[in-house]
Amino acid sequence: MKDNYQLVIIGGGPAGLAAATTAANQGVCCALLDEQPTLGGQIYRAIESIPKQRTQQLGDEYTRGKPLVTAFRESDTEYYPETKVWSLNKQREIGVLYKDEARIIQADQVIVASGAMERPIPFKGWTLPGVMQAGAGQILFKSAGVVPDNGVVLAGSGPLLLLLAWQYLHAGVDVKALLDVTPLSNHLLALPKLPKALLAHHYLTKGIGYQIELKRAGIPLLFGVSDLRAEGEGYLQKVSFKHFGKQKNIESELLLTHFGVIPHAWLTQSADCKHQWDDSQQCWRPEHDEWGNTSLDGIIVAGDGAGIHGARSAEHAGRLAGLEALFALGIISQTERNKQGIQDRKWMKDERYIRPFLEAYFKIPQSLLATADNDTIVCRCEEVTAGQIRDAVKKGHDNSNQVKFFTRCGMGSCQGRQCSNAVAHIVADEKGESVEKMGHFRGRPPVAPLTLDQLACLNKELI
Amino acid sequence: MNTDVLIVGGGLMGSSIALQLAMRGFKSIVLDKQSPGRHASGVNAGGLRQINRDPAEIPLTVEAAKMWRDIESLVDSDCDARFPGQIRVAENEADMQKLQQRVDLVRSLGYQHEEIIDKKELYQLVPALAPHCVGALICREDGYARPYHALTAFRLKAESLGVKYYSATEVNSLRQEGEGWEVRTSKGMFKSDVLVNCAGAWANNISTMLDEPVPLTPTALMLMVTERLPHFVAPVMGAASRKLSFKQMQNGTLIIGGALLAKLDFATEKTEIDWRKLAESAETVSHFFPQLKDVRIVRAWAGIESYMPDNIPVISASQSFKNAYHAFGFSAHGFQLSPIIGKIMASLIIDGKTDLPIEPFHISRFN
Ligand SMILES: Cc1cc2nc3c(=O)[nH]c(=O)nc-3n(C[C@H](O)[C@H](O)[C@H](O)COP(=O)(O)OP(=O)(O)OC[C@H]3O[C@@H](n4cnc5c(N)ncnc54)[C@H](O)[C@@H]3O)c2cc1C
Ligand SMILES: Cc1cc2nc3c(=O)[nH]c(=O)nc-3n(C[C@H](O)[C@H](O)[C@H](O)COP(=O)(O)OP(=O)(O)OC[C@H]3O[C@@H](n4cnc5c(N)ncnc54)[C@H](O)[C@@H]3O)c2cc1C
Predict the structure, then answer these.
(1) Which residues line ligand 2 (CB under 6 A)?
(2) What tens digit of pLDDT does each residue of B125-162 get?
(3) Within chain B, where are the H helices?
(4) How many domains does chain B have?
(5) CA 20 to 30 Å from A423, out of A7, A415, B39, B111?
(6) Does a structural domain hold residue B80?
(7) Is A452 close to B300, i.e. CB distance below 8 A?
(8) Cβ-defined contact of A455 to B152 (cutoff 8 Å)
C-alpha cells in the first residue's frame, strides 16, 4: 500500500467497483479498500467464489455482479481486501487498518461507497439470543451457505425480507411465517406514487412473483402485523404479535427481522460532511450534488451510502462518481465528464422511478421507530432503555447528543450504529419535535475500533 | 429579562457559581451560546486531582477536594465520584528525585496531601504495572467523577433553587447602565446588577468587551476511551516524566489522556483528532501495562479548553468595571476546582472578599 493515491475508493460493492473501474481505465492511480474478504459488497457478496447451485438459489439479480467484478479485476486498481477504514477527515487523510497495522494514507480524491446497513429497530425482546437481523442470515447464506436448520420466523418490512424468504424457500429452509409489520394504511398513502413506479415495473412484478411462490409453497404471509415481541427465558422461544386484533404466537428459536436499510454514513459523519434528514427514507444521509460531491472538497459519495436507491442505481452512481473524480483530477474536461455520464444518468433515473412508491409503501410506523415500551433496551452496548432516554429528555437534555452524554447511549463499542436513529426518534417523540431537529450523534472516530497496539503502529514509520 | 446576576457560560464554573449564589438568596440567569456542558465541562476526563498542582492552586484544590468528598450534600447526587487516589510513577532514580522535590515543596507550604510511596507499596496498589518502576508520588484522596453527570447535577440543583438557564443564547455585547448591565444576546436583551464571565475558551471575547483583553489560548485537548475491561487498576495513573494520564472508570472503560492537542479551527469550533499523537499515547500505555496492547479503542474526541500563559486561571473582579467578575482560564484542570470556585465567586460578589488566597489569579497580572 502506498502513502498517496490520486483516488481512494472505500467500499467494493456495485458503487465502488463501478467507480474504480471508470477511474482506473482512464489512467488514475487508485486503490479500493474494503473490510470484507471478498468483492461484491452486500448484494454481490462472495460472487467470485460462490458455488453455482447457491447462485441459482440467490436469484438472477445476484449474477449481475459478475461482469462488474470482472471489469474491475481487469482494471489497474489496487484492491485491498480485509482493510478497514477507521477514519477520514477533510484533508482526505484516511486511517486504514491493513494487515493488523494502522496507517494513514492520503488521497487527492476520495469516493465513499460504503453502502447500507439494516435499520436497527428496538422492539420488546430484540436483544434475546435467537433474534437477529435478516441481513446476518443472508450474509451467512451468501458467504458460507449456512441456513437455519430448525425453522425461522421472518418479521419486519421491506423488499429484502421478501427476497430472503424466497431465497430460503429455494434453499429448503422451513419458513414458519413471514410477519409483515407494514401498516395497511401505507398502501393508501403509496397509491398516488404507483403510476410512476410502473415505469420500473420489473421490481413490482418480481416482488409479486416472490409472494405468489411463497404462498403456493404454503408459507403463511401475514400482513398488517403489530405489537411484535420476542419472548423467552434467556433465549428466544416464541414470537408473539397482533394480527387483525387477535393475539398470536409462533414457537421458534430463530427470528430474523428486517426494517429496511439506511446509509452507512459513519465515515462521512466522522469526516464532518454535512448530513440531512431524509423524511421519505427515514434516515440521515450525506448532502451531495448530482455527481456525488459532498460539502467537503474532494470527498464524493456514491451508492446506498449516499441515500438508499438500490444496487443497480449504485452502479450508475459509482460510474458518475468515477467521472467526477477524473474531472476533479484534471484528467477529463467538464464537457467530457458530462458526455460520458449521459447514459448512466438516464439509467439511474429509470431505476429511481420505483423509489418514492417503495418508500411510502414500506414506511416504518412511529410505534416501531420510537418504542413506547420503556423497558425495551435501545442501546445494547451500554444497556440504556427507552425509559432512561425519555427520562433524560425530561431532565432537560434537549437533543440526541445531550442524551448521549447523560445516558451513555451510543458510547459503547458499536459507537451508536445500532441506536443512533432510535435515540433520535425517541427524543423527538418525547419532545414532540422533528427528528431532524434532534440531530444525529456527532461522528467520533475511530469508525471501527482498533487496538492500542494497532494504533501504536502509526509512529513506527517515523523511527 | 432582569436578574441579580447574569452568568455568561453554562459550564461547571457558571453552574457552580449560580448554585452558590442561589443558596445565599441571590437570583441568577445562566446563558450559554450552545447548551450547558457542551464544551470542556461535559467532555473532560473527570479527574479530581490535587496532585502536582501549581502552588498557588493548592489552597483552593484542597478545599475543593473536601467539597467533592461530600458532593451529594451539595447537589443531591454523588456525581459518580470515586476516590481511589492518583499516582505519578517513577521509572528511575532521577524520577524519584523529582517527585521527592515535589513532596518537599508541598510540605514547605504546610500541606500533607502528596507523599512518596516505595516500590513495594506501588505494586501492592497497582499489581498490573510493568515491573520496572521504582516508586511513585501519590495523593490518596484524589479520584474522578463523571463530568456530564456532575454538570447536570449542579444544573438541576441550581434550577431547583430558581436559577434559569438559557441555551442557544450567545452574548454579543455588553453595556454598563448605571452600576448594572445591559447585555445583548442572540435571544434579546438581558439586564442585571452583576455580570460574571465564565465563558471558558471564549472568555477573552467577554473580557475584551470589558476592556481588559487577556492572553488566553483556546486549545483542543484529546481523549480516547477503550472498550470495557475487567477492573485491573484502581488509582488514576500518571508518570513522572512521560505524557500519561489514564484511569479505569466505574464501568470498566479506560480513559486515556495526557494533555495531547488536537487540531482546532476555533472560528468553526471544529476539532480534528491527531492520530499520531494518540499513537504515542497508546504506546505509553502499553509501556506501563503491556497486557493492554490488544485492548480496543472505541472512541476519541477533543474538547476546547481555555489556557492561560501561566497555566493558572483568572479568578477576580474586573479591574475596569464595577460589578463584573471573571472565572476562566482553567488550563485543563478546572473540573476539580469547580465547587470551590462557586463558593469563592459568590463571596466575592456578595461580600466583596473571600477567605482563600486568590491574589495570584487576578486579571491584572496580564496588564
Ligand atoms: C445486509 C444487507 C443485505 C442486502 N441484500 C441485498 C440483496 O440481496 N439484494 C439487493 O438488491 N439489495 C440488497 N441490499 C441492499 C444493497 O446493499 C444495495 O442495494 C447495494 O449493495 C448497494 O451497493 P453499494 O455499492 O452502495 O454498497 P454495498 O454493496 O453495501 O458495498 C459497500 C461496501 O463497503 C464496505 N465498507 C463500508 N464501510 C467500510 C469501512 N469503514 N472500511 C472498509 N470497507 C467498508 C463494505 O464492506 C461493503 O463491502 C442489502 C443491504 C444490506 C444492508
Ligand atoms: C479533554 C479535556 C480533559 C480535561 N480533563 C480534566 C480533568 O481530568 N480534571 C480537571 O480538573 N479538569 C479537566 N479539564 C478541564 C475542565 O474541563 C475545565 O477547566 C472546566 O470544565 C472549565 O469549565 P468552564 O465552565 O470554565 O468552561 P466550559 O465548560 O467550556 O464552559 C464555558 C461555556 O461558555 C459558553 N460561552 C462561551 N462564550 C459565550 C457567549 N459569548 N455567550 C454565551 N455563552 C458562551 C460556552 O458555550 C461554554 O459552554 C479537561 C478539559 C478538557 C477539554
Answers:
(1) B 8-14, 31-34, 38-41, 43-47, 49, 170-171, 198-202, 205, 221, 223, 257, 303, 305, 328, 330, 332-336
(2) 999 999 999 999 999 999 999 999 999 999 999 999 99
(3) 12-23, 40-43, 58-69, 71-75, 93-108, 119-125, 147-160, 203-209, 275-288, 334-351
(4) 2
(5) B39
(6) no
(7) no
(8) no
